[in-house]
Write a structure and sequence with these properties.
This protein has 67 residues and is mainly α. Helices cover 84% and strands 0% of the residues. It contains 3 helices and no strands. The radius of gyration is 17 Å and the shape is elongated.
Length: 67
């Protein structure tokens, strides 16, 4: 997963939370620019997407679909 995409998602999510008043602006800035958080989410999202793909592959094999 491209870290730039994750960073943009975090920036928009933090902006929405700040706009709703759920978090302070300083906290939103920290969320959007934290490299450790971006790296962690990149790894997690990559693993989740891989598991989803493997799950669909297993479902297709079990159901006799073309793989």
């Amino acid at each position: 997963m491209n870290p730039a995409i994750i960073r943009n998602i975090l920036r928009y999510a933090a902006g929405a939370l700040v706009a709703k008043g759920l978090i302070a602006p300083q906290t939103g800035l920290a969320i959007a620019s934290d490299p450790v958080l971006v790296e962690s989410l990149s790894l997690t999202l990559g693993a989740v997407l891989g598991l989803i793909a493997e799950g669909f592959y297993a479902l297709a094999k079990r159901a006799g679909w073309r793989t």
